[in-house]
Amino acid sequence: MSNLTSLKGLESLKELNHSEIEYLGLNVAKGVSLKPLSGLKVSDLSLQQDGMHNADFEALNSIEFTDPQKSFNHIELVGNTEYSNQEGLTNDDLTRLSPLFEKVAKANQGTKDFGFNLSNQRITDFSFFNKPAFSRDMDIFATAEFQVFSKNPIYIDPDTFTSETPIKVTSQVLGIKSEPIQTSTRIYNTSTGDWEKINKDGNTFVSTGNVAKGSKWLIVGNQFNLDGYPATITYENGQTLRTDGYQYYALKWEKEPRPTPTPTPTPTPTPTPTPTPTPTPTPTPTPKAVAVKGQAIYAIRAVGLYRNGQFSKHNRIKYYRKAKRINRPEFVVKGYKRDSQGHLRYRVQQYDPYKARYVKGTSGYITASSRYVVSAYYATKPKTKKIRVINPTGIYEYNKYSLSGRSTHVKVGQTLKVTQIRKYKYATRYRLTNGKYITANKKFVVFSSIK
């Protein structure tokens, strides 16, 4: 689907008899004026646009919101480009958009786990949301950020550097309580081009053998196909934060200076220095595929199924609307393809896990964006070690993790305690306290918050 190149005419929506718009979803090209949004009254908003740092904030702040519980449970201000939106929203922009955020929070009267999706931006500090207005079980979701840290470079002595030299890196991403956080899982090897697993000690990790001599940046990120979504950070007041990004840490190839304390002289006025422009890092290669061949994924937002990698209405086979978890379309990845602009597509066929068979006439291509499709199976155990059955017809426990040897039937709504997660081919299973196994498919079970 192409991005909108103009919003002209939207202002006429204010003249409708029923002036409230239940849902307004816009995928807008970079640089398109948002002025037509001024004064609109909406319940749910999804705005996708690169370059929002230069957007018309006055127009956004003038939007009025009503209780957003009719469809979505979040408001979206997201970029179109993952991990490399170099003109996306910044930390300061959150403050500039305070009127919008506060109006949304005030309008929300009853939607549980309501929040903001701020993915594909440049945000590195989420302490803006440490306010009473945002403290009621609010979820902040901000993945695929483009995060550059150049003010405090990492010094490396070129005379003593070898491929075995350890480089200590402390995260400069700040959570809602201004605490350093590190949810990324991989480091980019500038020599091989591979993403290698990092060993973390809290919010600090040590890089060894990942940086070639003379490299300008040390880069960490998240790899969905290997590690799934980043871990959710939960705060005492009920707020949650889930974020990751490509973090670029500037490297300075010289011995770290150790200043010698000297008496402070009487200050002499000096001209204000002209700041040296900070170079912008060239974005690293796009993350590897979310899913491997044979893996099951499902759509968390509306998606189209197309005959080939070039997405257009003419090529569309089927359109899947955003649905509740148990009704989300599930697909099995058969292959990959890129369109003429380099966007990754999945070659898939829809699969019905309830009937354990493929759906006829549903072979084609869908987006590989992690904002639209994710793994259909859990990759971790819940922190509470409990899951709840959501499949209306229930599930079965099995004697073997291949899900053979059917045993006890478990009704919808029942809670089970798990002790282990186990991989089986391209799927996962949960092992229960009684030694039995159940599916870890997200359409059948969900993490339970009951401890």
UniProtKB/TrEMBL annotation:
Residues 259-286 have a biased composition (Pro residues). Residues 377-445 form the DUF5776 domain. It holds the Pfam family DUF5776. Residues 254-288 are annotated as: Disordered. This is DUF5776 domain-containing protein. It comes from Secundilactobacillus kimchicus JCM 15530.
